[in-house]
Amino acid sequence: MIMIFGIPGPLLFGQLLLGLINGAFYAMLSMGLAIIFGMLNIINFAHGALFMMGAFASWMLLQYAGIGYFPSLILAPLIIGVFGVILERTIISRLYHLDHLYGLLLTFGLALVIQGLFRNYYGSSGLPYRIPDVLQGATDVGFMFLPNYRAWVVVAAVVVCVATWAIIEKTPLGATLRAATENAPLVQAFGVNVPRVITLTYGGGVALAAFAGVLAAPIYSVNPNMGDNFINTVFAVVVIGGMGSIMGSIVTGFALGVIEGLTKVFYPQASATVVFLVMVIVLLTLPHGLFGRRA
Q1: Of the listed ranges 19-33, 98-112, 184-198, 230-244, the one predicted with least confidence
Q2: Buried (b) or exposed (e) across 41-76, using 16+ Cβ within 10 A?
Q3: Mean pLDDT of all residues in the chain?
Q4: Statement to judge: residues 215 and 76 lie in one domain
Q5: Domain count, the chain
Q6: Is residue 149 in some structural domain?
Q7: Residue 268 counted as domain residue
Q8: Which pLDDT band, with edges at 50, 70 and 90, does 173 fall under?
Q9: Which positions ≥6 away from 138 have C-beta within 8 Å?
Q10: Residue (of 290, 268, 294) closest to 279 by Cα position
Q11: Cα 107 to the chain's mean position, in Å?
Q12: pLDDT digit string (tens) for 233-277?
């Protein structure tokens, strides 16, 4: 058996893989939060509930409409994204000129309402979602057996994260989004419908959370509380990466997932707190985060 630093190789690599998987979800969820905060200035505490809704949407599409996993990767984010658009137009838009605390309290209340409705109807025990046939099984990579679905999750997360960053930072559409949030009156003078841009931005951030929920459905049981397992860590990721920094969210999400996985191998007692310890260290040395801009 291969030993690395006195640790069996399969155990070490297995925890690294779990860390990458958690990091993939941290990155996608924190990226959606960064988009919503960086462009709308709203601390969206309902993000975990929207992540859960994405998983439930994929389960419902399969259960009630016979629509499988891969179509759900497109349909579920679209459905939840539309829900996010309605949410923004009817409720969230009233908070843009208020203190951050109002947005946090409102979205926290929304999260409780959404979770309560799903818990009341589906219970809390969890619903299984089968891994699609083409992604079942594992591949022998020499030093370990790599589960195909988990490898797919990491690859899909990287592709979506990089594509989203490229759209926002490197395209005319992304430039319009950034300009609309930094100087809305000027952009409006050029004929851009700023309220529509802001609404679509919120819907896009929500759709990213729902996409992560679809990826998570076959790994975790689909239940109303599944977002709670991620949301606290995801907020720490956003703070460490820099509030509103998309690249910071991506890099920090994957990095903290790996750090958390390695901590479970070398010092398991600290695995639940290592992310928050890193957050404290970063805030003491770089209050604006690793990739954030100075105030």
Answers
A1: 184-198
A2: bbbbbbbbbbbbbbbbbbbbbbeeeeeebeebbebb
A3: 86
A4: yes
A5: 2
A6: no
A7: yes
A8: confident
A9: 145, 146, 147, 148
A10: 290
A11: 16
A12: 888 898 898 877 888 889 999 999 989 888 888 888 888 889 899
Task: Indicate the Cα dihedral angle 115, 121, 126, 131, nearest 10°.
Answer: -100
On whether residue 83 sits in a domain, the answer given is yes
Domain stops at, among 223, 239, 270: 223
C-alpha 258/C-alpha 17 separation (Å) is 8
pLDDT digits (tens, 9 = 90+) for 94-146: 887 778 788 888 999 999 999 999 999 988 888 989 999 899 988 877 767 78
Residues 203 and 113 occupy one common structural domain: yes
To the question of pTM greater than 0.70 for the whole model, the response is: yes
Judge if 202 and 114 occupy the same domain: yes
Residue span of the structural domain in which 69 resides: 41-118+194-223
- Each residue's pLDDT tens digit, 51-74: 999 999 999 999 999 999 999 999
Token duo for residue 57: 């949407």
For residues 197 and 153, which has the higher predicted lDDT (pLDDT)?
A: 153
Q: Are residues 294 and 233 in the same domain?
A: yes
Domain-located, residue 207:
yes
- Indicate whether 199 and 73 sit together in one domain: yes
Mean pLDDT of 157-164: 92
| Residues 95, 69 share a domain | yes
Q: Copy the structure tokens of residue 270.
A: 């600290």
Are 213 and 268 found together in one domain?
A: no
Residue pair 228/48 in contact (Cβ under 8 Å)? The answer is yes
Q: Which two tokens stand for residue 54?
A: 């994405």
Cβ atoms of 178 and 170 closer than 8 Å: no
